[in-house]
């Protein structure tokens, strides 16, 4: 369901891998009985019109059912824990011209990428609280 890399791609305004995330949330939030029924009905391709036409915009993420929001929230926390430093530490480094200047160009670029990723993840936390 998630693909080879096992990750979802999030943007500032929406989930870019919305089909994969929608299906994953749907399956992971099912009860065992619902999952058996879904699987028996070969429901993998037969989603409702509402689900097919909806995008996982930030607004839609904030309206998810509680179990899905909790699953996303916990997943984001685990992802944030995998980083070596928190968002504030990255921001402090970006704002400290002397320390930032000592970084190689590659380290500066990596810092910007990590900082952007963490900001998106923190935004997602707020949306699914």
TrEMBL record:
InterPro entries found in the cross-reference section: Rubisco_LSMT_subst-bd (IPR015353), Rubisco_LSMT_subst-bd_sf (IPR036464)
Tell whether Methyltransferase is among the UniProt keywords: yes
Which BP terms from GO are recorded?
methylation
Q: Which UniProt keywords apply?
A: Methyltransferase, Nucleus, S-adenosyl-L-methionine, Transferase
Compositional bias annotation for Acidic residues: 43-53
Any one annotated GO CC term: nucleus
**Annotated ranges, domain Rubisco LSMT substrate-binding:** 4-121
Q: Name one GO molecular function term.
A: methyltransferase activity
Pfam families hit by this protein? Rubis-subs-bind
State the compartments where it is located: Nucleus
UniProt-annotated stretches for the region Disordered? 39-58
Q: What is this protein called?
A: N-lysine methyltransferase SETD6
Phylogenetic lineage: Eukaryota, Metazoa, Chordata, Craniata, Vertebrata
